[in-house]
Amino acid sequence: MIRKILKTKDNWGQLIARLTLGLVLFPHGAQKMLGLFGGYGYTATLNALTNQMQLSWIIAFLVIKIEFFGAIFLILGFASRIWSLAIVFLFIGIIFTAQMEHGFFMNWFGAQKGEGYEYSLLIIGLAITTVINGSGKFSLDTQIIKYLNKK
User: Fold this and answer.
1) DSSP code of residue 79
2) Residue 79: which domain range?
């Protein structure tokens, strides 16, 4: 089973998709987990998600962990299929809980009360690509598979 999850082709396109997803998502996760990039940090984000957004503490906990650790592990190419699947579910949830009411477009000019879901669709598309194709070139998944095949 682990071989199926980690199996990947030595593919440049998948490397680009995985790195794009991880690098775009990382600052958002770092805001929530560490308070970097103008974020509030773990405790304040957890409180905001549970009190203002009315999410259960476990969902709020998972949002923070998936965005932070998922991004790091995608950049490294470790268990990319698992993290990408988690990201797909996370962003589907974001669309339905926070973005759907604001329509498709992001709030580029501050003309609406919230963000639309176009960004989330891009994230979901990149994540689904990674779920289907794996990590691609220069991934820890590739190195782990090579090691397991030598055994």
Assistant:
1) S
2) 2-25+57-142
